[in-house]
Amino acid sequence: MSVTVRFAPSPTGNIHIGNVRTALFNWLFALKNGGQFILRFDDTDVERSKQEYADQIASDLDWLGVHPHRIEYQSKRTASHDAAAERLKQAGLLYPCYETAEELDRRRKIRLSRKLPPVYGREALKLTDEEKAAFEGEGRKPHWRFLLPNFEDSPFETRRTEVHWDDVVRGPQTVDLASMSDPVLIREDGSYLYTLPSVVDDIEMGVTHIIRGDDHVTNTGAQIALFRALGAEAPAFGHHNLLTTVTGEGLSKRSGALSIKALREDGYEPMAIVSLAVLIGTSEAVAAARSTEELAETFDPASSSKSAAKFDPAELDVLNRQIVHGLPFATVSDRLASAGVDISDPRAETFWNVVRANVEKVGDAASWWRILTEGPDSEAALEGEDIDYVRQAFDLLPAGEIDASTWGAWTSAAKEATGRKGRALFMPLRVALTGRRSGPEIADLLPLLGREGILARRP
């Protein structure tokens, strides 16, 4: 069977690391199975959906290495949704309800007080044409519910009706349709909720696997019933665990927490984000992968645990460092140039190879370039006896070409002349040369500075 998956974000904000987890699970599943990946924008919320968000989502996914085979917009498929809704109405499976939110809440509380499950009692099915007309006369507009197949003869006498599926992530699952309210598919204003357009589009686009967050598990039974009501076999479902913040809070597009756009602007590497978003909360070791193709080779959706996974930015920093420290100059040269490094300088490539093990992000190298070309940073300063020591040491700089052996010869001469050793010997010279107390090996920096650049830093 040919595999077709989809990622269906709402273009109402920037996607965050939790949304991307779902996109990546689908993308890797498609890669591993030689399948197709559809990016389908759930943009039926006309007021909140914006093209700028859709464009940003597409850009974010492309940056992360997710390249859709097709891009669809649900707002352009209204005719198909309307036709399906009409079929359900004609079959008596989509019925109008006129209750207000307050009335529904009151009924729910009454059922709870009687120790009954707070499910909708299908009172709207008892309405006569005259009663419906009276509501219409009051200005009420109906919302429409899907009649779940959880009864034998009377819809008011439900019975246990199990829907089973073998979840791609969680294994065998069961949902009892009698434990659920008939889901609302159409709002009072005539707009569709997520469920109907999603099912219709999944059918018409030939989606074979739906992989999503486990907050949708309980919805799956009703959606399988809707597939069947529309004469289609339901796709395979998979529900992965969700990501939360370190404090256990859910991620939100509105808050902008850990949005891909923000992480990208902060200088994180795409594969650091991808690796952590996929591997956290699974039985696999969290390690930086070189590409989504490499990650797909070992990807197993069933490795996800059943409990939520906490996304810790500190872990992202670790992975990012691992990746940055191994990046060759050719890969980062454009970004270095954007950060202010003169990549036409003959020292540029050697400079990157020297400093990359001491930066967390590629852009951090710019500050070391300024130190190299403009002078020491102001982060640290010489004090007291260290000033006199450094002046004396600068007079001992070995003659000849400055190369990798210069630092050893220089510090040996300083040690012999002053009796200093260890940190007291090395640190004042590091501060004088760089204005920082840590960083790349001074032995590697000296050839980049050259004799003139070194002596210009004599206090």
Quick take:
The protein has helices at 17-32, 51-63, 78-90, 101-113, 129-137, 195-204, 217-229, 260-265, 270-279, 292-298, 313-324, 329-339, 348-355, 365-374, 385-394, 406-418, 423-434, 442-455; strands spanning 4-7, 36-41, 70-73, 94-97, 143-146, 162-167, 171-176, 184-186, 209-213, 236-240, 243-244, 309-310. With 459 residues, it is of the alpha/beta class. Among the domains are: 329-374, no CATH class; 385-455, Arc Repressor Mutant, subunit A (Orthogonal Bundle), CATH 1.10.10.
Report on this model:
With 459 residues, the chain is of the alpha/beta class. Among the domains are: 329-374, no CATH class; 385-455, Arc Repressor Mutant, subunit A. 44% of the residues lie in helices and 11% in strands. It has helices at residues 17-32, 51-63, 78-90, 101-113, 129-137, 195-204, 217-229, 260-265, 270-279, 292-298, 313-324, 329-339, 348-355, 365-374, 385-394, 406-418, 423-434, 442-455, and strands spanning 4-7, 36-41, 70-73, 94-97, 143-146, 162-167, 171-176, 184-186, 209-213, 236-240, 243-244, 309-310. The strands form 5 sheets. A 3-stranded parallel beta sheet has the order 1-2-3. Strands 4-5-8 form a 3-stranded antiparallel beta sheet. Strands 6-7 form a two-stranded antiparallel ribbon. Helix 2 links the parallel strand 2 and strand 3. Helix 3 (78-90) packs across helix 6 (195-204). It is elongated. The model has no long low-confidence stretch (mean pLDDT 95). This is Glutamate--tRNA ligase. GO terms for molecular function: ATP binding; glutamate-tRNA ligase activity; tRNA binding; zinc ion binding. Monomer. ATP binds at residue 253.
